[in-house]
Amino acid sequence: MAESRELLAEIEALGEKIAEARQAVGRRFIGQAQVVELALSALLCGGHGLLVGLPGMGKTMLVDTLGTVMGLTSGRVQFTPDLMPADILGSEVLETAADGTRSFRFIEGPVFCQLLMADEINRASPRTQSALLQAMQEREVTIAGVHRPLPKPFHVLATQNPIEQEGTYPLPEAQLDRFLVQIDVDYPDRATERDILVATTGVESATSPRIFTAGELAAAQVTVRRMPVSEKVVELILDLVRACRPGETEAGRAVSESVAWGPGPRAAQALMLAVRARALLHGRLAPSAEDVVALARPVLSHRMALSFAARARGESLSGIIEGVAHEVTRAEAA
Q: In terms of pTM, does the model score above 0.90?
């Protein structure tokens, strides 16, 4: 009982602090509350986020602001077609000492930080994109046969231009699966765009204070994992993820004509963590079915692919996921 009261106090204190961090981010990244919420959720879960949107939507500013507010050491890589894996991870160089002896010295790449901004990640070749696979999953890189751990906590927030744009490469499916959420950054509404226009074209620009330290964020990630999840929400997550796999369930058989492949177990793990973070951001002590439905598209859409027939019919993954979520929640309520 005492342990439950202690956890309750931790969750409430963390909720107040994360609300303060959210306000701090909002002072510089104006509007787009859903985008900020998903980005903070990714960090609270110890995961990575993929921000998808047209150039000029403020994606880079958001990542920079999050690094300041969350107290993380930041690194940035501008992905270009000629970027090589060593430009991200680092490399060994042969040095000659004053006495003439030679030895190899490892020079760390920009990946050795706590928050890596992978800017326009889909402008690099698939070979270079894949250089982040081990770092994102295992929090270490292997270079010249030596395992080199990355700083803790370690997060990647990548920005991506729409695939249809000139000079872009689709991300490998294995890498997409390592992103906890896909965050779609759309055009702001008129009122938000007016606020942006007034706030960013003056003499002074807004700044954001540091709210967390790296150690406090790591502790917050542990608290999020300790949040209780009801059996009903666990079953709903399983039903939803499995229903999005072609032929897996009755609902899955219904999407078989539209979906080439569906989400794997990592998607269920991501959804389980993300619903806890969303509940915390909304001032609740435990996640609900509403959180599962709200996060279905950001967590699942980049882990699925439309079939050729579905693309020809003009279907979208968002529509399919929303339809499946509606069917699953209706079945749970029955």
A: no
In tens, the pLDDT along 114-159 reads 999 998 888 888 888 888 888 888 898 888 788 889 998 999 999 8
Q: Which residues of 145-161 are buried (b: 16+ CB within 10 A; e: fewer)?
A: eeebebeebbbbbbbbb
**What's the pLDDT tens digit per position in 19-70?**
999 988 888 888 888 899 999 999 999 999 999 888 888 888 888 899 999 9
DSSP 93-149: EEEE-TTS-EEEEEEE-TTSSSEEEEETGGGS-HHHHGGGHHHHHHSEEEETTEEEE
Strands (E), 210-267: 259-261
Which one of 207, 225, 243 terminates a domain?
A: 225
Q: Is 143 exposed, middle or buried (0-12, 13-18, 19+ CB in 10 A)?
A: middle
What confidence tens digit (pLDDT) does each residue in 244-302 have? 888 766 655 667 778 888 888 999 999 999 999 999 999 888 899 999 999 999 999 89
Count CB neighbours of 195 within 10 A.
13
Domain that holds residue 203: 1-80+113-225
Of 86, 113, 273, 259, the closest CA to residue 179 belongs to: 273
49-52 and 155-160 strand pairing: parallel
Q: Are residues 51 and 147 in the same domain?
A: yes
Which CATH number characterizes residue 265's domain?
1.10.8.80
Helix H or strand E encompassing 210? none
Interatomic CA distance for residues 30 and 43, integer angstroms: 19
